[in-house]
Amino acid sequence: MKANELKRGSFIHFEGQNIVIKSVFCQTASSRSGNTIYKMKGQVLVTKKKFEHGFLGDENVDVIDVNRQPVQPLYREGEAWVFMNSENYEQYTLVDEDIQDELAFLMEGLEGVQALVVDEQIMGIELPANVVLTITETAPGIKGASSSARTKPATVSTGLVVQVPEYLSEGIAIKINTETQEYVGRA
Question: In total, how many domains does the chain have?
Fold first, then answer.
């Protein structure tokens, strides 16, 4: 597969290590003859070390086959989350280190979560594009505020702090983009 086809959540094999891609940044050359560089940030699966590398757009990259299985977060157990496979009801435990980027969105019973399985071993989870969470703490809503006006910080039920329009108040369910961690709209 070409480097320009890789996206967040892809698994690659590079320099003898299996890596999960956490973000892709496209850097276009300023001159006509320059090549586009795709800067990948990720994590080595075995050692959990950070990975950063720039690939040329037409450079070939080895992609690992990943099986995605639907799971549902059941409960927290110490420093880990317990997930249940929605098809065969098997339970898996993932420590917080393995799912650090997804922790801010996890809550019991969340729908649309996929377990990423490589060689019968769960390597991580993939969240849906948007998650509905409830505002638990924010400044009081202003009646005359319009939806495109200023924003204010709001804490949601999982502890994540997001910028929301001024007219929203506590107890309102909102949609949040899991990739950008930004307010999308009301639920």
Answer: 3
- Domain containing residue 158: 130-186
CA atoms within 13 A on the CB side of 87: 6
Instruction: Tokens for 21, please give them.
Output: 């891609």
What percent of the chain has a predicted confidence (pLDDT) above 90? 10
CATH of the domain at 110: 2.40.50.140
- Report which of 138, 151, 118, 160 is spatially closest to residue 12, judged by C-alpha positions: 118
Residues 15 and 36 occupy one common structural domain: yes
Residue bearing tokens 């649309």: 112
Under the banding of pLDDT at 50, 70 and 90, the label for residue 147 is low
Tokens linked to 6: 């890789």
Identify whether residues 121 and 142 lie together within a single domain: no
Could you tell me if 124 and 20 are in contact, meaning their C-beta atoms sit under 8 angstroms apart?
Answer: yes
What is the tens place of the pLDDT at every residue in 99-116?
877 888 888 888 888 888
| Cα 156 to Cα 171: distance, rounded to the nearest angstrom | 9
